[in-house]
Fold this protein.
Amino acid sequence: MSSALATTEEDTGTKAENSSGKRKLILIIVPVVLLAVIGAGLWFSGIIPHLAKNAANNRVSAISESPTLVEVPDIVTNLDNGSHRAVFVRLKARIEVAHVADQVLISNEMPRILDAFQTYLRSMRPEELRGGEGTYRLREALMNRIDVIAAPVQVLDVLFIEMLIQ
């Protein structure tokens, strides 16, 4: 009798192992099959190809929309020296805008931009323009003035081609 009891205990242990192995297999296979069915449904309904096409179009438009430079006419103006001797600055610059369409808007506002540049430069002292910090402050101040003048345009940078203080 003890041998009959031992075989029934072994059978129950084997059945328990078989049922837990089947459960693990089911828990792995069911989600994989479910994901495959959902993916196939999205593909055949046209949602995935549509999303892939939009992503490709966005990448192409982002590549074609590179920043553009707008030439600023040469500026020659005097600085605030505080003495009778005049100190002049000559500035050649370009304005970097985010979109090609903004180039026309900046060109239309160029007289106002030039006026703002000259007004700001006339209020500066020659010492304020010296060194990297002076150039950086000038760039930031000019960018702020352009942003105010041409409000919807996204100005990325003001590039100095030449700056001569005499």
In short: The CA atoms of residues 2 and 8 lie 10 Å apart. The radius of gyration is 36 Å. The first strand starts at residue 68 and ends at 78. The mean pLDDT is 83.
